[in-house]
Amino acid sequence: MADRNLYLNNGTIEESLDLFASLLGKQQLVREPVLVDVKNSLGLRTAQPVFALANSPLRDCAAMDGIAVISAKTQGAGESRPLELAKGEFEHIDTGDPIYTPFDAVIMAEDIVEGNGGRVIIRAAAAPWQHVRPVGEDIVQGEMILPRGHAIRPFDIGALLSGGISEVLVYPKPTAAIIPTGTELVEIGGKIEEDSIIDSNSWMLAALVEEAGGAATRLPIVADDLESIKKTLLDAAGSHDIVLVSAGTSAGREDYTVRAISEIGQVAVHGVAMKPGKPVILAIVEGKPVIGIPGYPVSAYLAYDTFVAPVLGAMANTTQASAQTVKATLSRKMVSSLKYREYVRVKVGDVNGRLVASPLERGAGAAMSLVRADGFCIIGQESEGLEAGSEVDVLLCRSLEELGSTVVSIGSHDLILDVIADLLPNLYPGNHLSSVHVGSMGGLLALRNNEAHIAPTHLLDEATGAYNVPAIKTMFAGVPMALIKGVGRVQGIMAKAGNPLGITGIESLPDVRFVNRQRGAGTRLLFDFLLKNAGIPTTTINGYGREAATHMALAAAVKGPGADAGIGVLSAANAMGLDFIPVGVEEYDFAIHASDLEKEHVRCFIEVLKHPQFHMQLEALGGYSAGRCGEVEIIG
């Protein structure tokens, strides 16, 4: 059995980078420039200034189709005094044709009339050099076309060729080998066993390398075998500029990466004080930088951005672009450890001129948090966390312009939010929906704190049997509010396909393994109400405290081996192929400050709710009614 690894380091990011840089300083990271065909130079960076070898145009030429004339011989021509030019006094010419002496002007074809005997009639005099592109008008031989260090764009290629340049000296793309490791890994499309994991990180890393201007080679999956990893590493280091090893970097007994590297090279750093991303390896093998990337997706991305990107930049002789950093107000408290610098994924929205950052899932394996994130909030290593309402720095992943036209939704989860997020920018270009799922009560609190535009909610008032309006009146007394009517949706108990345990209703739940929604969710409040009416104590529910943040997460748990039932919406049960026992129909609406109803992106949001395409997708999902969808009800 393999020994468990121990982390060699827990230094700061800056200390780790400095240590790695001092080791790499002995190597020649910057690639030697090479001559390439201009036509194949897209994206490469110039190694020296590029000067034109030829004029463009090469000589005086026509800028229009028509006739070349001697301007002095056209003087006096006018509408009331047409002038006839004989053969020899003009020459038919097309755009781009050279202009030869004695001609010095061009009259457009639409301004001439063909006369008899090959003559032409003109009704306006031509000015000297009219409609003529003089030699060197665009590019003059000897002038600089591109400076040193310029990333060549498509139109740069056109300019280089026009200036007579056929080859250009550039820095070659750094070549990166990506080695996915893990006996449990399988290729997408391959045979998947119960304990398999589809490899995705190596393809993400390859795409990041390509995006940064490198040339990535993703190698076949290597099993957790020390000798196989060593051989693959040596081969990759011998044929590439940099090697990235995906997974196997932690302290597990089958995490062989650090041992393999240390036996064939030199390990500078194993472990960095960052979260996610602690188990990074920074090393040298065969004179090449080798970086061990943690296996969790978020850790892998942050490790790439922090350690791989600077090395690739040095190799390509480029400066790493800095993400835009903005000040935002944190919507809820975040606790952190003094041991690490933590990178928290956040949604960011512009709410009444103030940027608000709402934290997303913090797990290193939460790949979708990267997809959904608008930026990263960084909690310093010396901090125990950040308080709700505090001002924080956020590194943006989206533009401020896009954030300014985004409807910020914080509250209860439903599948229709994904439908709206898809339809909104397609039906009304430039507008977007950003949603964070914290339950109905959490959403109303965010709305009260001016941290969201809308709060999806489905809160039942036990005293009146009414949905949403009583809760809004209580929480926003004296504040002009509105309710954008959403959908009626069927809530019920999800059970495994075929309902093998014969669940019939609430009364069956004490005998099964249950999954609940999170505290503050309207579905949780509904469940508590049903339990109370049935006289069933919450302590008798096996799994009452086991929480799922979304209806789809709950459905996935029920479909899996660890749970028998949960409470949620019919559409999620349908999506997962589960059985469903209805317990009632509720109203899922959107609370909003009345003053925000006139915002352009909010108006577009309301129009989506009324749109036939939205209603068609509701019908396809199942379990929804849309009788009042998009209506606005003013409250208070």
Structural notes for this entry:
- With 636 residues, the chain is of the alpha+beta class.
- Helices cover 25% and strands 28% of the residues.
- The strands form eleven sheets. Strands 32, 33, 34, 35, 36, 37, 38 and 39 form an eight-stranded mixed β-sheet that branches.
- It is globular, with a radius of gyration of 34 Å.
- It starts with 12 loop residues before the first helix and ends with a strand.
- The model has no long low-confidence stretch (mean pLDDT 89).
Number of helices: 16
Report the sheet-strand fraction.
25-35%
| Mean pLDDT score | 89
Quantity of strands, as a count: 39
Distance between the termini: 69 Å
What characteristic shape results from the CA principal axes? globular
Helix content: 25-40%
The main pleated sheet reads as:
8 strands, mixed
Helical/strand content category: alpha+beta
* pLDDT < 50 runs, ≥5 residues: none
* Radius of gyration, CA atoms, in whole angstroms: 34 Å
Quick tags:
single chain; 636 residues; alpha+beta; globular
What is this structure, in a nutshell?
Helix content is 25%, strand content 28%. The chain is of the alpha+beta class.
Q: How would you summarize the topology of this molecule?
A:
Layout: H1 13-24, E1 34-37, E2 45-46, E3 50-51, E4 61-62, E5 66-69, E6 83-85, E7 90-93, E8 105-108, E9 112-114, E10 120-122, E11 132-133, E12 144-146, H2 154-162, E13 167-171, E14 175-180, E15 185-186, E16 197-198, H3 201-211, E17 215-218, H4 226-239, E18 242-246, H5 257-264, E19 266-270, E20 274-275, E21 281-285, E22 288-293, H6 297-315, E23 325-330, E24 334-335, E25 341-351, E26 354-359, H7 367-372, E27 375-379, E28 385-386, E29 391-396, H8 400-404, E30 406-411, H9 416-427, E31 432-437, H10 440-448, E32 454-457, H11 469-475, E33 481-495, E34 514-517, H12 522-534, E35 547-548, H13 551-559, E36 565-569, H14 570-576, E37 579-593, H15 600-610, H16 612-621, E38 624-625, E39 632-635
Parallel strand pairs: 14-17, 14-18, 15-16, 18-22, 20-25, 23-26, 30-31, 34-35, 34-36
Antiparallel strand pairs: 1-13, 2-13, 3-12, 4-11, 5-7, 5-8, 6-10, 9-10, 19-21, 21-22, 23-29, 24-28, 25-26, 25-27, 27-29, 32-37, 33-36, 33-37, 33-38, 33-39
